Amino acid sequence: MSFAQSEANYDETKVPKFTLPDALVTFSGNNISDHVQWEADRRFEIFQFFERQVYGKVPGRLDEYSFKLIEESNDAYGGKARRKQVAISLKKNKKSITYNMLIYLPKGNPTAPVFLGYNFYGNHTVTSDPKVPLTKAWVPNNESFGIKDNKATEGSRGVRQHRWAIEKMLDNGFGLATIYYGEVDPDKNDFSDGVHELFYTEDQTKPKTNEWGSIAGWAFGLSKAMDYLENDGNISNVVVFGHSRLGKAALWAGATDKRFAGVISNNSGCGGAALSKRKFGETVGKINTAFPHWFADSFLKYNDNEKTLPVDQHQLLALIAPRPLYVASAFDDRWADPKGEFLSAHYASMVYELYEKEGIATEQIPEVNQPLQHTVAYHVRTGKHDVTDYDWEQYITWAKAFIQ
């Protein structure tokens, strides 16, 4: 446990008293009574606040982007899957980056829904498939994975396959599309070697105060991947998924891009699904100090000042309505505040009700390993900060019921 985690509040009696901003009352005090008003008035102003004051605004449009199918096979996973590997290239101001998407699709159906999510160490780490090349991008060092000098090695192949349940997906008619997030923007406080740098004006070295941090950069990369996936004739719907910091990115991607058919947040915590005003576990001040590149610099004014935030994360979740949303926690992951994640899903549900979609009606967090599955779904499982087969079993069951 880090020093920051050991100093965090884990005592419910020390959660400060706060008033949660009402998702159905505008900043000027007008009540929202139907989904037409929500879309026209409230959704826009909430989205604009998160875009300018929390995650940061994308400062323009690409000059060009393109896709190249670099490898495919009809004989992956013992013949049960098709594999595609696609290079996505983004160009702006005569500069470019390229990142690679690995896709597995179940054979037997002409089209299939897919889960799209970033991985933490390279596409080669989610599978033991030898046809998936090692990433050439900067990778965080990890002694247990045999990664040093920030370079992927053959020894790291398959080290994270336990997080992806690929065969479970395939057996249930789902595919997977995954991207190493460091190929879009390396996860370090350095804006010189990822997607942000494409948009710089002369002599600029980092985004402006209200421009995008890394979370918004990763969300942008997911949307560009969606540009490919929606035109792949073998894919029907796309559910965007993310764990931890990448759960934050998945939520923001779902909020900014309505083409995603559903959104899954796994242990996303502060700046993701958890309510900021609870100040339980990780807080705005702690996250902005430890990871200053994740959010817009305009978010810094709320360090240890959550009470002045005119929004909270339940309103981020509400931006995804009426599309299906799954928020998941882990009992031992108090840093991510399971109760705060649950309450956020509960309070977002009032917006889903405007669309006659069922959310989380109760304010009582469910027992461990007792999922609540509606258009808005939630579970807290036993265990720690991770992605497990149990999580994927719930996501697959829910997606079968709610992703059209």
TrEMBL record:
It holds the Pfam family GCE_fung. The keyword Signal applies. InterPro entries: AB_hydrolase_fold, GCE-like_dom. The keyword Signal applies. GO terms for molecular function: carboxylic ester hydrolase activity. Keywords: Hydrolase, Serine esterase, Signal. Residues 207-353 form the 4-O-methyl-glucuronoyl methylesterase-like domain. This is Acetylxylan esterase. The lineage of its organism: Bacteria, Pseudomonadati, Bacteroidota, Flavobacteriia, Flavobacteriales.
